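Subject: Sanity check before I submit

Could someone independently write out the structure tokens for this chain? I want to compare against mine line by line before I put it in a report. The sequence has 309 residues.
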Amino acid sequence: MNLSSKKFSEISKFVKTKARKLDKSLFTYYFENNSAENVLKDLRKYQNEDDGFGHGLEPDFTTNSSSAIATCVAMQYINKLNIQGNHFIIDQILNYFTNTFSNKYQRWRPVPDDVNKSPHAPWWHIDEKTGMCPIDNNWDNPTVEILGYLHKYDNNFPKKKLKEMTNKAVMRLLGEESIPEHSLYCYQIFYSYADQEVKQSIKSRLFERIRDIVNKDSKDWREKYVPKPLDFVSIPDAPFYNLLNDLVDKNLDFLIKSIENNKAWFPTWSWGQYEKDWEKARMEWTGKITVDNLIILKKFGRIEDKVNI
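---
Independent answer below. Compare away.
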């Protein structure tokens, strides 16, 4: 099953009129020969003087301040571009990560202390008593993702500390403690960029955890916020493809079927607060999700009259 050229045209019009400029720029990079530098130019609008990213780049919290989570989102955009080596924006991000590691908590805190001062989803709300948001209860997110980037690129993060943190990440994955889907998304990035010794030590356990956590019910994919096969296999040569190949094909078919009566893919969650601000965030998420899904469909050859990447 392929996305028809007619439906692709309808979705394209939605992206160009409703999506954020950054997501429109990424769309035109993949489908209209826009340059990577133009995408980076739009991405830098979310960057602060400390080299980190904020300003609602992650639409579920809108503080202008830099955060580890928003800066990881910036890296996710960069990794969708064909950039070779350490581009200066990557160097800036790595410097931000180096400078913001918390020795007190031995990890990267996900969001800044001022996150409560602007509209945000409840899972990013910092409790005044504990000084923590719900995501803080999970050491791996975004720390393990950041460790992956520190393995991939040359950087100034202390090598001894990187080894120590890597060993901790490995031991947590190999242990029996439950690891939620967002942490496993971090671990798949970590796995992709770690050295061969680390990969071999965690491969079977990571595959086992992914297999167990992936939701296999397409009804849930439509109505609930659940970990889907394409969350772990977004490109044909992903290391987890053989583990989930049948489910990946089913998920690709689902993407195409689920948009038959729409012009975009919408988020399956909501804030339940800041209703007007949520509507803005919801549209930003819709544009981002729609562009990401089109890129996935293109990479799997599921769009009629596609242009090869």
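---
OP: Matches mine. For the report I'm noting this point. The mean pLDDT is 95.
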